[in-house]
Design a protein that fits this description.
The complex is a heterodimer of chains A (434) and B (405). With 434 residues, chain A is of the alpha+beta class. In chain A, 48% of the residues lie in helices and 15% in strands. In chain A, strand 7 and strand 8 form a beta hairpin. The longest helix of chain A is centred in the last third of the chain and has 36 residues, at 349-384. Chain A is elongated. Classes of the chains: A alpha+beta (434), B alpha+beta (405).
């Protein structure tokens, strides 16, 4: 029966080519717009570390002075060096790491390569295991290397390609500024989306090219990049000093389970209370512990424009659908005569209804194919845009399936009213007017 | 023209009429807000920040080793850069408009008013900065040569002493409303006060138009940054900019070849990159408006054609009874005008509701009322243009042919 209705639908399209084309076009445009914006939304709202995001937590403590204090305010979103190093020493979570971004001059051995700057991350030993960073060669460093301020680096696949032609460079030497470092690990491709562990680098920035122990970088007085928030005069040591009243380090911890969150939070509250008693903290205890998903929501990582575009696309689809309903309705009314004949020959109301719904669905499939094509073009356009998330806008299998589902559901919904109208046609009246 | 026959006909095609009204309403609600969004973005794109942007080049240089003579090299760089043909002024600044970093500090007017905190852009630069950036003093004076300090020495000090500052007019008016700011004191760092020696007309935030920079609060400090943290700003005759950009790497290399020229660009390029997202959004909105209008127009054409076909008998009868072609034409035009009108009224309500939603969710300003009549006229015109072809087809129907069918 379905095949017959499908055949009828095709005949009907041939009968009114311009109108059918118009409906497919409108539906395709609406679906294409929705799919483009939804795909971007889907990519950007992805979980950067699925399976672990619920027990990876970011830590915030309020180390500010009373100046400008308002109860209920958020604490600084980063930690001071003093607090980050203290929490790291305490080791109260399964894994933990402090970190900051940095840009470091690389002086290649090869005379063909000019010195250049590479993005770097100064962090501590647990970083790699905690964030499930994939290695191609070698491994990260251990806590002993942190303590010893070892001159070791882990490099990205791209940097390894650039400096060592992609071969296993573990054990080779890398010169940064005036210091030699030993390469101990080479990463496989790794790009967490969003760049969740440090959004000050750009929410969708690629991962860094170089990783080194924070302790080593501090001993060598390497600079840092990112956000620095100071609330009091800095001493002679400058803002990177251990006692400077400046928050500039990200601090992440991996808990055994999400249930451990309350314990961990109470530990942080005790820590803050102790700091208050010692006179370092002035404000009332104000601790935030957010898992990856909550953290990304809190940092408003999703660009407002992207959300706006999704709403806009659905508004557009709604107009396209209203349009389709109107045109389908007109078409079904025009075919009252044909329906009358079919009804008189024994077709039930249900059969007429089914026939028209199938016709709408067929239209939806055609619109879906067109929409997919348009979405593909739309995403290409998005990739040409200058936003840092642009290269990520790729259509994937779930979105492909979703676009067809959306097209089919939307068109069938649009077809319900006209089909119902068609099914109400009384054969006798139609035959009489013919 | 009598409205009654139109209304009674529409009553018999309620569903189709409602659908077309709904479509027009949705379209006009979206179009009004999309137009407004384009306007907001274009205003941002075209904003004048009071700088001679077309003349400015920005140069960033980075070292690859530790350097104890960064201040000295910076001075030598500047000397060489100023000697290039076409360079009117050159300076070193800690940050540049449309640049990648922004330094800010909180300013309070006095100890008594310490809860009044003004988040301000914090610029620092050498003697040439006022000329290079084309800043206009509106009160007071520029810094004296002996007032300049080196940033490197300064940041390592136990206590930051900041004797003189120049502030933007916006900050002056916020801190000292109604009075002359020159000679007044303010607190920008720690516990020592600084004296305002001058007020400049405008000193835009590095990220103009984005949350922090909206109010135009800024202060300029007499510290000389060096090449390791700051950027060179060159004011160059546009005709000679290409030559200057080409000569820059040689100049930097001559002073110290271990350094890297990180970027050397026109400020206009940086502006274009800074606003790229706004431009893309404006184009996207434009595309959506065109697509929406087209879809709606075709919807009207489709439905009107169907109605013409369905009412062939009625048209024939009326023509046979003496109605002119013009009357038939006007009948369909009026019908469309009426349907559009209802749609537009609903749509204007929708536009306002949507605008409220956008204000709450996306920090959009309120939809100015002027958009409502503009949107209404656009959709009325659209409806009339769309209905013209089917209406003319109806008017062209000969009475006999109509009666025969």
């Amino acid at each position: 029966m379905l095949a017959y209705y499908f055949d009828l639908a095709l005949r009907s399209f041939r009968g009114s080519r311009a109108l059918s084309l118009l409906m497919v076009l409108a539906l395709g445009l609406g679906i294409g717009a929705c799919m483009t914006t939804l795909t971007v939304f889907h990519v950007l709202s992805g979980d950067p570390i699925p399976g672990k995001s619920a027990r990876l937590v970011n830590v915030q403590l309020d180390a500010g002075t009373m100046g400008g204090y308002k109860p209920g305010d958020e604490p600084q979103f980063q930690l001071t060096r003093f607090d980050a190093e203290a929490l790291l020493r305490d080791k109260r979570a399964k894994r933990q790491a402090l970190m900051t971004g940095s840009n470091l001059p690389v002086l290649p051995e090869s005379p063909d390569l000019k010195p250049f700057y590479a993005s770097a991350r100064q962090t501590s030993a647990d970083f790699f295991a905690m964030f499930e960073v994939p290695f191609r060669h070698g491994a990260g460093w251990d806590a002993a290397a942190d303590t010893a301020q070892a001159r070791v680096v882990v490099i990205s696949r791209e940097l390894n390609q650039k400096l060592f032609g992609g071969e296993n460079s573990v054990g080779r030497t890398l010169r940064l500024r005036e210091q030699d470092f030993r390469v101990i690990g080479v990463l496989a491709d790794w790009r967490p989306v969003p760049h969740f562990y440090d959004t000050t680098m750009g929410d969708y920035a690629p991962a860094e090219d170089l990783y080194m122990p924070f302790a080593t970088a501090r001993a060598l007085k390497y600079g840092t990049t990112g956000n620095m928030d100071c609330w009091d005069a800095q001493g002679a040591g400058g803002p990177l000093d251990i006692n400077a009243p400046c928050a500039w380090l990200q601090y992440w911890a991996e808990l055994e389970s999400p249930g451990q969150l309350a314990d961990y939070k109470s530990y942080l509250e005790h820590y803050s209370e102790d700091q208050r008693k010692a006179g370092r903290f002035q404000r009332p205890v104000n601790v935030r512990v957010r898992n990856v998903v909550d953290w990304l929501v809190h940092m408003e990582v999703m660009p407002g424009d992207v959300k706006l575009q999704v709403w806009l696309a659905f508004g557009f689809l709604l107009v396209c659908l209203t349009n389709t309903v109107g045109l389908l309705l007109a078409k079904s009314l025009r075919r009252s005569g044909e329906i009358g004949v079919r009804r008189a020959l024994g077709a039930t109301r249900r059969a007429i209804f089914a026939q028209f719904v199938v016709e709408a669905g067929t239209l939806g499939l055609a619109g879906g194919v067109l929409g997919l094509l348009l979405a593909w073009c739309g995403l290409w356009l998005v990739r040409q845009s200058p936003a840092d998330y642009a290269p990520l806008a790729q259509l994937d299998a779930p979105m492909l399936a979703l676009s067809f589902a959306l097209a089919l559901v939307a068109s069938v919904l649009a077809g319900l009213l006209p089909a119902w109208q068609a099914a109400r046609v009384t054969p006798a009246q139609q035959l009489k007017t013919q | 023209m009598d409205l009654m026959p139109i209304l009674s006909t529409l009553r018999r095609h309620k569903t189709a009429a409602i659908l077309i009204v709904l479509e027009i309403a949705l379209t006009s609600a979206i179009v009004c807000n999309a137009l407004h969004l384009i306007d907001v973005r274009l205003t941002r794109l075209n904003a004048d920040h009071g700088l001679p942007e077309a003349e400015l080049l920005v140069l960033t240089v980075r070292g690859t080793r530790t350097d104890d003579s960064a201040a000295d090299k910076t001075a030598r760089d500047l000397e060489q850069l100023r000697a290039l043909p076409g360079v009117k002024a050159a300076a070193m600044a800690n940050q540049v408009i449309y640049g990648s970093n922004s330094n800010n500090t909180t300013v309070t007017p006095s100890k008594e008013r310490k809860n009044e905190r003004f988040h301000s852009a914090q610029y620092s630069g050498d003697e040439g900065l006022m000329d290079a950036m084309g800043l206009k003093l509106v009160a007071g004076r520029n810094f004296k040569p002996e007032e300049y300090q080196f940033e490197s020495r300064f940041l390592g000090a136990d206590e930051i002493r900041l004797a003189q500052v120049i502030i933007s007019r916006a900050l002056a008016e916020a801190l000292f409303p109604g009075t002359d700011a020159v000679g007044k004191t303010l607190y920008a760092f720690g516990a020592t006060e600084s004296t305002v020696v001058g007020v400049v007309d405008r000193l835009p935030h590095p990220y103009p138009g984005r949350a922090d920079g909206a109010k135009g609060y800024a202060l300029l400090l007499p510290w000389r940054p060096n090449y390791r943290g700051g950027s060179y700003i060159l004011r160059v005759d546009p005709a000679q900019q290409d030559a200057v950009l080409k000569a820059v790497p040689g100049v930097i290399e001559k002073v110290d070849a271990t350094r890297i020229v990180d970027s050397a660009r026109r400020l206009t390029e940086m502006r274009s990159a800074f606003y790229a997202q706004d431009r893309a959004m404006a184009w996207l909105m434009g595309g959506v408006i065109v697509a929406l209008m087209l879809v709606t127009a075709f919807g009207i054409v489709g439905l009107a054609s169907f109605w013409v076909q369905q009412r062939t008998r009625m048209i024939g009868t009326r023509r046979a009874l003496g109605a002119t072609r013009g009357q038939i034409l006007r009948y369909f035009q009026l019908e469309n005008f009426l349907l559009s009108g209802i749609g537009i009224v609903l749509g204007m309500g929708g536009a306002l509701a949507l605008s409220l939603l956008l204000m709450a969710q996306y920090e959009m300003p309120r939809l100015p009322w002027l958009y409502l009549p503009a949107g209404a006229i656009a959709l009325w015109l659209l409806g009339q243009i769309a209905v013209l072809a089917p209406a003319r087809r109806a008017a062209a129907l000969p009475p006999v042919a109509a009666l025969r069918s």
